Amino acid sequence: MSGPAGPVSWPEGKSSAASFSFDIDAESAVLWRAPQNAHRMSVISHQAYGPLVGVPRLLGLLDKHRIRSTFFVPGYTAHRYPSVVRDIVAAGHEIAHHGYLHEQPTGLSATEEAVALDRGLEALEEVAGVRPVGYRAPMWDLSWRTPALLAARDFLYDSSLMAADHPCELEVGPDAPRSVVEIPIQWALDDWEQFCFLPDISGSGLIETPAKARELWQAEFEGLRSVGGCWVLTNHPFLSGRPSRAHQLDELMGHVNSCADVWVASLEEIARHIRGLGLDPRSVEFPSGPEN
Ligand code: ZN
Question: What is the domain class of 16-279 according to CATH?
Answer without folding.
Answer: alpha beta
